[in-house]
Write a structure and sequence with these properties.
Strand content: 5-15%
Radius of gyration: 33 Å
Largest sheet: 5 strands, antiparallel
CATH architecture of one domain: Roll
Mean pLDDT: 76
Helix content: 40-55%
Order of helices and strands: EEEEHHHHHHEEEEEHHHHHHHH
Shape: extended
């Protein structure tokens, strides 16, 4: 039988030849890979040589004996052998094996979520540390005000302590672990999949206790694979019990908790992180369009760059925010650029935090200019609060008139817009 190797853990296995070309699941690391036959090793090739030579010698002896026997019997009488009738099945061309169906990104993510939950249910955790992004979990806690220092500033022993804590959160409390024991994954479905995030909903069922639980898992791409950054569990429900009934006590407990402090609607104007997992080609297109948008001498090209940034969607938002950071809003030239950037952000998010430029060099700034700096801070506050839930530009409120002429000047990008509230 041919020998294949797993592309993830490089374990080798012997499989029937009919499996070559198919997508298989590695029994050791549980990852999917395409079965490709490996060439024989030099030792195998060397070991098979004597067998081949022996077969050649035996074949030559048999042929010689047949020739001697035919020569001794003389010329055989000429006969016409009947032609065997070919069956209809034999006359048909051999069916070609179907090509292996390619695995979609959604299937890869759902499979990762299912394996992670199965590991929790069977106390089989050796691969869990490879499937969790501890740094991202820590960043979320910093944003929520539960941590004061970023992951990069933690010492090695502090990181190990945080990893242990975050792993315990994934494993759950004593009640959860008791439920997970002998539970199975009965459903796993994709909820949302973008270049920077994936969400999967799953149902766990414990047949022994006849209970079930709904789980939501959030993943982000990291090092070419999906890694868990959040796991949210619903209440454990008995058979026939609905979530509102089971969650009555939990709702009362939540109501009794101290109210979370309200966040300031604005934030500090500092560079933000780009969206992880954005393809390099998309990043280069965004940077190219942003450079044109920030060129005050460009008019028609800036309008096209604005459209390109809106088409890029969610990955363009951090680039636009970072373009606002170094601008001096007391400078007429920087105000013009800031107005363009704020206009693109308004189209991408549906929010209305306009930055109003001056009418021309040396003139007084336009009406509402006193809100320019607060609005710049509000853009950063909006991204802080919505970057995990924001998916892309909102749907337009109306279809544009095809006969309406587009103004090629900067005014459309600089005109204050009425907020639509789509990005909330």
């Amino acid at each position: 039988m041919p020998i294949i190797a797993c592309s993830s853990c490089h374990s080798r296995f012997k499989v029937p030849i009919t499996k070559i070309g198919q997508t298989l699941t590695c029994p050791r690391c549980k990852e999917k890979f395409q079965a490709i036959a490996l060439h024989a090793t030099p030792r195998q090739q060397h070991g098979s040589g004597p067998i081949i030579y022996a077969a050649i010698v035996v074949g030559a002896v048999i042929v010689a004996l047949l020739i001697y026997a035919i020569a001794g019997r003389g010329e055989p009488e000429e006969t016409t052998a009947p032609t065997p009738a070919r069956s209809e099945a034999a006359s048909q061309p051999a069916a070609r094996p179907e090509a292996a169906k390619p695995v979609t990104p959604a299937e890869v993510l759902v499979d990762r979520a299912r394996k992670l939950l199965e590991a929790l249910c069977t106390d089989d955790h050796p691969l869990l540390p490879l499937w969790i992004d501890y740094a991202e979990m820590h960043r979320q806690r910093v944003e929520a005000g539960l941590e004061t220092r970023p992951w990069s500033e933690l010492a090695a022993d502090e990181r190990y302590a945080r990893q242990t804590e975050y792993m315990q959160n994934v494993l759950g409390d004593a009640e959860t672990r008791e439920f997970l024991r002998l539970s199975t994954v009965t459903r796993a479905e994709m909820v949302r999949l973008t270049t920077g995030e994936g969400r999967v909903e799953a149902t766990l069922k414990n047949a022994l206790k006849d209970t079930s639980q709904e789980v939501v898992l959030r993943f982000i791409p990291s090092a070419g694979a999906w890694k868990l950054v959040h796991l949210e569990r619903g209440p454990i429900l008995a058979a026939g019990q609905t979530a509102p009934e089971a969650g009555a006590e939990a709702s009362a407990e939540v109501a009794a908790r101290p109210a979370r402090r309200a966040r300031n609607p604005d934030a500090e104007v500092v560079a933000v992180e780009l969206i992880a997992g954005t393809p390099g080609a998309v990043t280069r297109d965004i940077e190219r369009a942003l450079a044109v948008l920030c060129d005050r001498t460009a008019t028609t090209a800036a309008h096209q760059a604005r459209q390109d940034l809106v088409v890029a969607g969610r990955p363009a938002v951090p680039h636009l925010l970072n373009a606002l950071v170094p601008l001096d809003l007391n400078s007429a030239g920087d105000l013009q650029i800031a107005a363009r950037v704020a206009g693109v952000l308004a189209e991408l998010t549906g929010e209305d935090f306009p930055i109003v430029p001056g009418t021309n060099e040396g003139s007084m700034v336009g009406e509402g200019a006193a809100q320019n700096e607060p609005n710049r801070r509000r853009w950063f506050g909006w991204w802080r609060d919505h970057k995990d839930s924001y998916t892309g530009p909102p749907a337009p409120d109306f279809e544009p008139d095809e006969e309406e002429e587009e103004d090629e000047e900067e005014a459309p990008a600089e005109r204050p817009r009425q907020g639509r509230g789509r990005g909330r």
